[in-house]
ABC transporter permease (Pollutimonas subterranea), 305 residues
Amino acid sequence: MAQNAFSRLYHSDVVYSFSRSPTAIISAVVALIIIVGAVGAPLFAPHNPFDLSTLDLLDANIPPIWSADGDPRFLLGTDDQGRDMLSAILYGSRISLLVGFASVLFSLLIGVTLGLISGYVGGRVDSVIMRIADVQLSFPAILIALLIDGIARGLLPRDSQDSLSLYVLIFAIGISGWVQYARTVRGATMVERNKEYVQAARLIGMRPFMVLRRHILPNVMGPVLVIATIHLAVAIITEATLSFLGVGIPPTTPSLGTLIRIGNSYLFSGDWWISIFPGIALVLLALSVNLLGDWLRDALNPKLR
């Protein structure tokens, strides 16, 4: 059975489209390298930027290895605290990906659930959910994330803010991105609920929850996957933006946004590598995910087959 499923997947239109798209292949390879490097950071990183006992302030601001003052121990140089930039980027990508995936999953769960309810039930429930969505769409996502982050920091005890900052950031980014899922799923659900297979499920007495889970949800997941892929890049950039502004991950945790913010203070003094290399990693990650999302959108569009 598993072999038949693998055979169907291998001969599917999506795999064929992927094999014929050099952009999708290159983007997948780049994203895979960054993800593997981030997940395997404890194995691949030359140093551990979280281990304060291994840091030496005398190693601060060392340029990359190809510079005249470079050190063979640090391929991409060090930052102001003596942390190896390559190791910090690997660990920082790990945190950025964690925030991105977790916030996208949170947005997807909220948006898909509300979209299914809104499209299937209709009436006042639909009106209330969509009006809330319209109000949220009138504000930029980054502003909503900043507002939620600020409120959470004001309510949490001061001594626990740094330890809970990761969860607050995931919640803030996730709650600011559910609307696009809800609106897309609502429209697809309103189309599917009037089809014959849904009407037949109702006639045999199937409960609404089972109708939504078994029949409607699988048929609306295509557009949701495309939105989630593109939203992942947006969530990663949003995390970097919040950390750059100083309201995201604390400075002791080397996320990509934090590294860029630290390096920005030394950019005009000649220590360009502290911000440039994390910036390149962030651009490559976001660009590769965006290009994969564009390819997936075209591959799942029946009009382009």
About this structure: The mean pLDDT is 81. The CA atoms of residues 99 and 170 lie 6 Å apart. Residues 90-304 form a domain with the MetI-like fold fold (CATH 1.10.3720.10). The two ends are 28 Å apart (CA to CA).
